[in-house]
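User: I'm new to structure prediction. If I give you an amino acid sequence, what do you actually give back? Let's try with this one:
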Amino acid sequence: MEPISRIAIYNLSAVMKETGLQPDVIRVWERRYGLPKPQRTAGGHRLYSEYDVATLKWLHARQIEGLSISRAVELWKELSAAGHDPLQGYLPTIEVREPAPPAEEDHLDTLRTEWLNACLVFDDSKAENTVNQAFGIASVETVCFEILQKGVRQMGDWWHQGQATVQQEHFATGLAIRRIDTLVSTTPNPTRQQTVLVGCPAGEWHSFPIRLLTLLLRRRGLNVISLGANIPLDQMQQTAASIRPDLVVLAAQQLTTAAALRSASVLFQQAKIPMAYGGLIFKRIPGLREKIPGFYLGDTLENCVERVEELLADPVHYPESTFVSETDLEIAARFRAKWPQIEMRLMAGLQEKSLASEYMATVNAFFAEGLAAALELGDPAWMENDLAWVGQLLTGRQISIRRLKPYLDAYREAIESEMGESGMRITGWLRNYLDGN
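Assistant: Good question. You get back a string of structure tokens that encode the predicted 3D arrangement of the chain. For your 437 residues, that looks like this:
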């Protein structure tokens, strides 16, 4: 193999494009570990050789394989001490390329299909090997988006359509989360001063998006503190008060957790701590964004990262949000308090209509929580998106969607009986929905 040139000719910008690494990361590795070893111009600017660029790629490739940066440097030094050039026979297996060329995109589509097929038969070894192949042709970000994120979403769609079991969906999500967590653990220490606190509000267990965002932001050199899933409001508030982050980022995927997110956003606004948010529910129901006093990060994780960077670089005032009336909040509280009696009357009504079944308790709980959340967000009509989702779920499981309408009618009757005039906000919406469907 021909020797790699050590003539310093590349500036930092060129090295960034070639390696995909951020400038802060490159500087920290140089300062902390002595690798690479660029020369300096008379004006003090760094100049890198092809050998320096290859060194950075080599270190980055070891990270992708699971080593920490400190262990990768140790391995480099061990090889050098033994008289071996680490780049001779130990060339990087990972190249960072953005965006992926068409041929690469086709290959990633094929690998995603292979990953999904492995998950369907619970073959974690095959699934992991498939992801490793993807890392051999694309960047960390590309693999996470094209294989893991799209794969998890596809498996979720299959479950919703009745084409995959909940066990298969959980298996795929678990594998994806495990790989993301491994990548997070191997990112370099933060190189920037800003701190971002990320997490999911109470009741939100879908943590894959927020974990992936943690990885993406850490690879930008940010200090990211991830609280994970299902964080009670008081604990989230205490943590934010103690560390005073530059930005809080929360994610909600469901109507119920969007309501919990709104409660958190109000407290952060009062504490003058900037808060941003995202999640599938805000893409499905764009109008919900008007109820959240915070910064919407966009419909995709790619957009989220850039939006976070913008907010950190140029903090702005909280956007205006639409007021949720005290009346709606009071109705929601009264509905929750009356729910045991409503459910008893509902079940009696379902028996009379021959609609009771073994899954009805689950449906009742889902509907009750969703309806209360919709009220807490200012309009029971927000629940209509969830009703459409339930209808698709029933269809995917060969359960007649025609059973939904008499169920809702029984629900309306139970609320009228137990709440009277105080429940008219709910029963009026139900009556209009039934008339229109």
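You can read the tokens as a compact description of the fold. Here is one thing that stands out. DSSP finds 18 helices and seven strands in the chain.
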